[in-house]
## 1
Amino acid sequence: MTLRSRLVIGLVTIAIILVGPLVFAVTSLFRLRSDALQLRETEIAALIVLGRLRDGLNDLRREELALLFSRDEATRAAMERELSHADRLADSLAHYNLPTFASDIATSVHLISAATPAEYRAALAGDTTLVDSLSEHAFVPALNRADSVVRAAEQKVRERTYQRIEDETTRIAYITSASVIALLLAIVIAALVSIWLTRSISRPIFELRSGMRAVADGDLTYRLKPLPSRTDEFGQLAASFDEMARQLTELDKLKAEFVSVASHELKTPINVMIGYLQLLEEGVYGRVESKQQEVHRTLVTQANVLLRLVKQLLDVSRFEAGGGRLEPRALSLNRLVSDLERAFHVLAVQREIDFRVEREPELPDEVFWDPDRINEVLGNLLSNAFKFTPHGGTVELFLERMDDDAVLMRVHDTGAGIPPEQLPRIFDKFYQADNQRAARAAGSGLGLAIAKQIVEAHGGSILCESTPGVGTTFSIALPVRVTGRHTAQRPLPVPV
């Protein structure tokens, strides 16, 4: 199965699993909405109709009293309108599942309708005895019976509404529990699918990363044995990795051969040129005229620059090819620092730069380093500091003991500084930052690359911090005791 197929299957499965609870919840919400609409259209509407009917019966009671006193046609017409309205409301109750109550109320309304004309005629005739009798034995009992039926219907509707609300509450609780369980189950299944998908992708990635790290550390014999047997993209990538490692091994051999040839083929003619220039300077081949002396000095300077560049380039090539071996031995740290202080003191006086060296008392008396290489690193960093620091500036060398049996050295200057975006590349071969216009002399772009390789070969780390216009600080962390080349080990971290 290809990687794309795995991703598609995994993502589709996760989507289906997560959409399932959502569909269930949405369906349940629509059902609850339908039930709520039905409750509004039946029970609540029935209560509204019964409330209007009760108000209408109360209006009939008032109109009946008004009829007894006013005895006019307008009161009688208003009473008939109320009776007609009550009759229509009673008929509408049948639509709300209240047929019995609708029939009883309609019967009472019809009795009231039958008693009203006789009561009106008796009131017009002034027969108060008949009026009172009709009101007491026909109108009022029918009205009271209708009112009691309305109240009973309201009670019935309330009970029915309460029961439906209870049912809906139970259903909501069930839907909530079911949704939560479904969601948790979906999350668990989605997590399992994600773990399977992640592991199927992350394992070969970790293996490839380990291979890349091994190759970066110089182990070109590393092979990804489990992965090439796979048929997916990782198998193809592993096969390409093995082929790359094989080609790098061949290139490394060619590179080592080039270093060997270059060390003989380049240094020898340059040394011959410098030797003959020295013989010319000594007058072995005759007197050198004043004009020729100027050309001679230029040739000597350029030949020495060329020799220095070749040595630096060969140093870089040797370290990259694994041939830049260290020769660590015991040396006095205080003596190393004192020699550097004396060497750069004259330069500091000439350029009017405040040069200070500070040591912490806890520093070890003796370290086990390659003195020539470390002296080259510190000399290069101090030379750069003096090169980029203007008159009146400061160059400082700090040494202190770290907690993990290591020494921390910092070279700080108040020079031009390095732009932040260029800091990650200052240790690259031939790279020079934009602050070269502030330098007192041009560089080759190899010094920091060599310094980094020497420090890492000692098992240490080098870090640069810089602010344009403020200054630059190089920090080096080295273990007190170095037994050999440490390129395969994790470098010692530099404290920030």
## 2
Amino acid sequence: MTRTPLILLLTLACLVLPLGSAIGQGFVTPNLAPLRVCPASGTPGPMPDFTADDCTHVALSELDPQGRQIWVRAELDWDGSQWPQDRPIGLFISGKASSTAWLNGHELGSNGSPGAERATERPGRMDAVLYVPRERLLPGRNELVLLMSSQHGFLHLGWPVHWIGLERYQPPTSLLAAAYAPSLVTLGVLVLGFVFFAAMAIRGGDREGSALISAMSLIAVAQLLIETSRGLYAYPYPMHDLRLVLIVACTTAFGLTLIAYLLHRFSGLSLRARLLRLLGLGILLIPTLLLYSAYDAKTLYTFVTVILAGLAWCGIWVWQRKPGARAHLAVLAGLAALALLFPELFIDRYFYQAIAGLLLFLFAQHAIALVNERRTRRLEATRADRLEIALSRAQQKDHPVQIELVSAGRTDYIASDRIAQLKAAGDYVEVHFENGQTSLYTGSLSGLEASLPPTFLRVHRSHIVNTGYVSALERDASGVGRLILSNGMDVPISRRILPKVRSALADAGE
């Protein structure tokens, strides 16, 4: 298929579109020296000097206030010459925790209220900003102290605190929305895919295939909105657990629906057999979901497992020479390579571009399949019409259909092969016979049309002809056509249906 290379190129272009930098780009983060962490007592007490034996050094990625209350000391390097004087400054704290912050011994404020127990803690926002007066910042190194706790939520995350840094004071959702904005470009593709294929599923054609692609698009829309919700709403940190679970659930549902579509299109199996294979794949995903503690890893490797399963099946279908399987194999192989060679980059930047690229490919392939299916159906319908006409002609020769015609209280039964043409004449029908004779009968042309065999063709609102008596089709310069009958008569053809008449006569002549 000549369109396949172009579709593959467009899909791969979507896969490598940059998503934008990770959230937190541009932050002035704590310097490279490890953070100093000390346990906090159950009751409010003075700030520690961070020299006790139970204090430890940790990296930002290891900072974990979950299920406890801790003191944290960090060092910030500040160069005021890089910041315009009219630019307000904020301390951004992004993580699953409540916190209170001090800069160089001066309290900046709180995000929620830290506590040693669940009952004494008031959950803060997942992403918060505290205003930093410029006079509190010293040229060079500054000391930042945080009292943190995380007593709510139902998950224990491997990286609960994401970022701590200085930036221009603004709502955290603004920074996050800017980071998520490129991924929202794919939202239009996903929504259009859902609407278009939902309509296709309702209208007909490959209803199951269209419904599955529509479902994939809807799941991807839901996952993208859940993912970007962090840039739309500054939610309390306990909601972050639910957000992560929903993202993994959407990835799993998307993957299983993708496999359901591939099985529907290529396997030729019954619905029950396909459902059993989906159930087996779902069971196979359980160890992947349980093995990894990090939810980005759950999302990534759930997706990879599904893609590898699709690759295995596509390989079988390529060997079986199933049309279209090779193109699907190539796209899935590209996705698997990107995810396995660049896992962090893929999950942080390219995941939704990959989803959109995959869906664009499926949209195109499914649309081509639908067009081919409709072309095949039209061809089969044409062959059926030709066969019906041929059978009707044979029947008319051996056993002509008897047409019931009424005139002045008398009913005549006339063999259809004797009639060359029927013409509307007010409340009557004028019947022209093969020998040139004409009779007038009561009724309407539309009423008679249903009782005529397929060899009769309505070519004008006032004329029906027996195609067995057509000897020529003529068309003048104005586009108006007419049929020349073997009995010498000519019949006008409506310009609107002239192409249909030409096609029908061509079919009848074959």
